[in-house]
Design a protein that fits this description.
Layout: E1 2-5, H1 6-11, H2 13-21, E2 26-30, E3 33-38, H3 44-56, H4 73-76
Parallel strand pairs: 1-2
Antiparallel strand pairs: 2-3
Function: Antitoxin component of a type II toxin-antitoxin (TA) system.
Family: Belongs to the phD/YefM antitoxin family.
Protein name: Antitoxin
Length: about 80
């Protein structure tokens, strides 16, 4: 995590925003004291896609259309 003074942030806002868009997090300081954090937004779509890909690798597909060998309670009546 980088550090940037408020005055530098004001002077270079576009450059700083590009850094954050690329994934860098920054501590914003005023008079040497950290007053805020500037962090990239969470890319929910990317995380969801990664999670689905992870789960897809573990999935086991079976024949879901054929009858089961075990009778259902509803069929017993």
């Amino acid at each position: 995590m980088g550090t940037i003074a408020v005055s530098e942030l004001r002077a270079n806002l576009k450059k700083v925003m590009r850094r954050v868009e690329r994934g860098e997090s920054l501590e914003i300081t005023s008079m040497g004291k950290v007053v805020a954090l500037l962090v990239p937004t969470e890319n929910k779509q990317k995380k969801a896609r990664e999670k689905l890909n992870e789960i897809a690798g573990k999935a086991v597909l079976h024949d879901v259309l054929s009858p089961l060998d075990v009778p259902w309670e509803a069929e017993k009546q």
